[in-house]
Amino acid sequence: MPTHTLQTRESKDLPARIALSAATVQGTHLRTEHVDDWLAERARAHTFRVDRIPFAELDGWSFQEATGNLVHRSGRFFTVEGLHVTEEGEPYGDGPYADWYQPIIKQPEVGVLGILVKEFDGVLHFLMQAKMEPGNPNLLQLSPTVQATRSNYTKAHKGADVKYIEYFVGRERGRVIADVLQSEHGSWFYHKSNRNMIVEAVGDVPLLDDFCWLTLGQIGELLHRDNVVNMDSRTVLSCLPFGDATKGALLSDIALLSWITGERTRHCVRAERVPLESIPGWKRGESTIEHEEGRYFNVVAVSVRAGNREVTGWTQPLFEPVGLGVTAFLTRAFGGVPHVLVHARVEAGFLDTVELGPTVQYTPDNYAHLPETKRPPFLDTVLRAPADRIRYEAVHSEEGGRFLNAESRYLVIEADEAEAPLDPPPGYAWVTPAQLTSLVRHGHYLNVQARTMLACLNATAVRTR
């Protein structure tokens, strides 16, 4: 007769091990103050170059004759298509019927974003990669151990193997700490998800060039620096099951879930893929697809050389935002418990219409022409925040594999009742970081910007203890 062994549903020691790693600001392999030098050394060890090119010089990419969609000849990787969006209610509040067109990236395959962890001297260390992405402002940033699309790790590009991929897709992959499908940028991707994984290795792990072991405390320190920890690392780190030292919240967990469900049901969004050549308000030149008013973003093309990638040279399209983004949480303490103000944000590319975003997630230049009454809620509060109210600030770039120079100023700002009332406007709610940690264990509750903010909140909380 087969026997069945019951497993413990929750690891009782894991939150304490994570907390110890977060509190350890010097690792056993690389000192925090030497990380910049290590990244510079890895940059010198390889050839990196990114050049803008006309669309006609894209190798393997072309505009389809029938649709104008930008596609790869293999049928893999991704396509740039048009999207027609209609919504009852404006993206940042209750309002009139909205209707717009835009380019969108369609990449249906699920990628793997995975960080391998291992204990050294009793402390969890995280295996981070010095990875070049063509859209990063400084090219080289700390990425997860594995950051690969399915096309990459199945070698559709006929390049080299993805290093360490066996720890995340193999049968003997070790102890899973986190494994969840999460959305990508819903404003630029159509129904895109990635598998966010953290796996604790069993046995020895070879340390390859371009990789280093860091504690969570070291990574937390680096999250306070501009453009060091890349977006994919931030989203994976947000999925860590931190323990909850606080008790209570303004909304119970079931009330919060009910509020999210209500937000999802009260919004009606229709996103229809259409031929890229037919979208009004956008024009295509030799090197750029851009909005007629010069706002939002452009579609451009680049040629890339990267000596340490699976393929060392290629060309591709990238989305390039117009202006620096601002992404912020307003925070207040209620009953001694810190809360942040989340926004039930509608983005056309989401699978489920609404995900929780930060209080503010906008590019101010896109709204500069509007009168104050038409500007997004809380945007001006964030822009005018005095320095003594700012609890966290850093500039982080977005996903460098698809977006060129896409940077946002990430902020946590202490607010008062006049700036952020206890009873917020529709579409907003006060939640605790611990509640966000609980929600992020499940897919499509927090958008990618909120997940970055959660990783930064965790880093800031450890620093202030």
Automatic annotation (TrEMBL):
Gene3D superfamilies: EvaA sugar 2,3-dehydratase subunit. Residues 33-240, 256-457 form the dTDP-4-dehydro-6-deoxy-alpha-D-glucopyranose 2,3-dehydratase domain. InterPro entries: EvaA-like, EvaA-like_sf. Pfam families: Hexose_dehydrat. This is NDP-hexose 2,3-dehydratase family protein. It comes from Streptomyces caeni.
